[in-house]
């Protein structure tokens, strides 16, 4: 099994949601995790994908907007054939590309664990729109275009926080830096799962205020339920919902 070389030395995050997720996956999968190999890694313009030797795959949003140019990846060519437990550690890196690979690996392992121990996974058939009431103030971190008109049919109080400029926005759109001001007044928070890889998820969750519902949305979201049970929050999370 090849050794991972030339990985950029970056500070690792020790507290928060991703460390809890990595620790939980390692605990539940046990020694078997060291025997699982990374079969393939693809970094695309939109998503980063990881395929494991057991043919389980996972994706995470590729954080291209974190860079002004084309970054060099020192670990290119050394990930294939590495053990999944080593690549999973990338989720703790503060380098956005390494973190995306780690989150994609966590997603792949979550899918595997879902099949091995389905009782650990709570499934709900609730639609995200069923969580929203006409009087609710909804804040969406990340632009989910198909959802916007559907939410606006329920409530006009929708604000989008987005790093990129949105052409022809249908509702109030503000830069993501306004999160500290806007999120505490929300009733429903919809967070893009890309906030995991770009290291902003825990901070955004700390701005929750009295929000009744917090939704982690997008293909980067891990299936593993410990993500919501262990996330820091101003109040206890009473229920974890995972769409079926």
Kindly list the characteristics that best describe this protein.
244 residues; alpha/beta; Enolase-like, domain 1; Rossmann fold; 2 domains; 5-stranded parallel β-sheet; 26% helix; globular; disordered N terminus; disordered C terminus; DUF364; DUF364 domain-containing protein; DUF4213
Nutshell version of this structure?
The chain contains 8 helices and 8 strands. With 244 residues, it is of the alpha/beta class. This is DUF364 domain-containing protein.
Description:
With 244 residues, this protein is α/β, with parallel strands linked by helices. It has 2 domains: 17-120, Enolase-like, domain 1, CATH 3.30.390.100; 128-229, Rossmann fold (3-Layer(aba) Sandwich), CATH 3.40.50.11590. It is 26% helix and 16% strand. The chain has helices spanning 17-29, 84-88, 96-116, 147-152, 179-182, 194-197, 201-206, 226-229, and strands at residues 38-43, 47-52, 57-61, 138-141, 158-161, 172-174, 188-192, 213-217. The chain has a 5-stranded parallel beta sheet with strand order 6-5-4-7-8. A 3-stranded antiparallel beta sheet has the order 1-2-3. The longest helix is centred in the middle third of the chain and has 21 residues, at 96-116. Mean pLDDT is 83; it is low at 1-10 and 229-244.
């Amino acid at each position: 099994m090849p050794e991972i070389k030339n990985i950029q030395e970056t500070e690792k995050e020790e507290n928060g949601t991703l460390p809890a997720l990595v620790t939980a996956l390692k605990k539940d999968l046990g020694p078997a995790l060291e025997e699982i190999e990374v079969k393939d890694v693809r970094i695309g313009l939109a998503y980063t994908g990881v395929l494991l030797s057991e043919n389980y795959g996972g994706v995470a949003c590729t954080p291209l907007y974190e860079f002004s140019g084309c970054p060099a990846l020192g670990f290119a060519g050394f990930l294939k054939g590495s053990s999944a437990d080593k690549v999973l550690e990338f989720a703790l890196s503060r380098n956005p590309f390494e973190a995306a690979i780690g989150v994609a690996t966590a997603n792949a392992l979550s899918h595997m664990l879902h099949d091995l121990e389905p009782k650990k996974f709570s499934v709900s058939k609730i639609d995200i729109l069923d969580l929203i009431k006409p009087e609710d103030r909804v804040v969406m971190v990340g632009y989910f275009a198909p959802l916007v008109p559907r939410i606006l049919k329920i409530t006009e109080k929708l604000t989008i926080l987005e790093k990129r400029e949105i052409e022809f926005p249908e509702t109030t759109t503000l830069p993501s830096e306004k999160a500290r001001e806007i999120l505490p007044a929300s009733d429903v928070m919809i967070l893009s799962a890309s906030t995991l890889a770009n290291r902003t998820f825990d901070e955004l969750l700390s701005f929750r205020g009295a929000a009744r519902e917090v939704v982690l949305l997008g293909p980067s979201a891990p299936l593993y339920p410990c993500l919501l049970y262990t996330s820091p929050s101003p109040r206890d999370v009473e229920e974890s919902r995972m769409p079926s």
